[in-house]
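It would be a great kindness if you could assist me with a short task in structural biology. The full record is reproduced below for your convenience:
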Amino acid sequence: MAAAELGSGDPTYYALRPQTPVRAWVIAGLALVAGGAALLAGWPEPRKLVLVVIGALVGVAGLALAITAAVFLQTRTLHITLSPDGYEVSGPGYHKSGAWIDVDAVSATPDGSRLVIARGRVDRTFIQAPGGKPDDQMRAITDDISRRMQALDH
């Protein structure tokens, strides 16, 4: 979800999601189809009980993989809210927030894939692009933070 183009006085929200696990979705889909086909092929005849069991197991494995991929996408999202007063960054096992007035420095890696908001000598807030590759969303976050920091100077 991209944030709207707003001035430094409006709150903005960003969600950095990991890349869609396409391979997992394809494998899950194939497993569901193969499991369903094996289940249907062996269902009416008791002699083909092994085929029914294998089909059911493969189908259940495909369903489990699909659910795991969906949960992965939901739980691995980094949520960033930038307001006129401060910021809040939360994700899996991570929650940091602070006021812009307390920020000493904001730095980025040369490729722009990671931002570090520094407060004091020790406190750091990290924002990293999913997969370690900068994208339009990461550039928008960088520009937004830059505008907010410049607004403090004026």
